[in-house]
Amino acid sequence: MQTAAQSMVDLPGIKKLRSGKVREVYDLGDTLLFVATDRISAFDVVLPNPIPKKGAVLNQLSAFWFNHFGRIDNHFVTADFDRFPKQLRPFREQLAGRSMIVRKTKPLPVECVVRGYLAGSGWKEYQQSQSVCGIKLPPGLKLASQLPEPIFTPATKAESGHDENIDMSRCAQILGDEVAERVKKLSLEIYSAGRKHAAQRGIIVADTKFEFGTIDGALLLIDEVLTPDSSRFWPADQYVVGESPPSFDKQFVRDYLETLDWAKRPPAPQLPGDVVARTAAKYVEAFERLTGEKLR
What we know:
This protein is of the alpha+beta class. It folds into two domains: about 100 residues, 2-Layer Sandwich (Phosphorylase Kinase, domain 1), CATH 3.30.200.20; about 130 residues, D-amino Acid Aminotransferase, Chain A, domain 1. It is about 30% helix and about 25% strand. The chain is built from seven helices and 17 strands. Strands 8, 9, 12, 15, 16 and 17 form a six-stranded antiparallel beta sheet that branches.
C-alpha cells in the first residue's frame, strides 16, 4: 500500500506535458502517462500539505470504474506497473499504484455533470430560480433532496479556472447537436449504473462529473471516473433530507479552512495533522467500500 505522501513527481528523461492541481501528465508517444499525486486543493488553491494515499485512491478507483464500464469506449490502457513501457521501470517507487497509461484523445471542451440530488451550486441556483442549468424542477425541494430523475447539467471551464454552468442549448452550440446528445445520454447512463453499484455498498452518488474525448471522431470516456475528487459521495446511513450530509472527500479540509481568517488565495495555510489523517481515511474508505478491495 502507498504510505508516504507524494506531492511531486520527478521522471528524468520522460517528457512532461502539463501539471494540474493534482495530476502530472507525460507524453509517451502514442499514449500518455497520468500520475495522480497526493496534492489537494480547496477553493482553487493547492494546499501545502499532501494527503497520504489520495493519489492512489484516485488512480485505482478510476481504473476500477474503467474496467467496470468496459463496454463503454474509454481511453484506459493499463494501471498495472508491470505492463508499463521499459523506460518507466526505474520509477516504480513513484509510479506504482498511482499512475496509468491512457490513449491520447482530443478532449471535448465541456464537462459533463450529472446531478441526482440537490447540492452545491445546483442547490444555490434552485433557491433562486427553481431550476438548475435551465432545467425546471418541482417546487418544495430541500437541500440534499433526491431529484425526480437524474439531470444533465454541463459546464465549461471559464478562463479563471472555475466551472461555469451552461444549459443544453449552449452545450449543443459548442459540441454540435449530435455530440451533445451522445454525451448527455452516455453521462446519464454511466451515472445511473455507478449510482446503483455504489448504493449496494452504502454510498449515495449525489452528483459527478465526466469528461469525454475523441479519437478519429470516435467518442471515449476519459480523465477520472466517479472518484471523491470528481463526485459528491454521501454515506447512505447518515443521509437526511434538508441537511448537508458528510461526504467522502475534502469536507474536513474545507470545514477547517472556513474557520480561519484566510482570504482563499495563495499562500494557503498548513493543515493540522488530524485534518490530514481524517481526510486520508475518508478517501481510503470510499475506495474500499466501492471496490470491495484493499488499496494497493
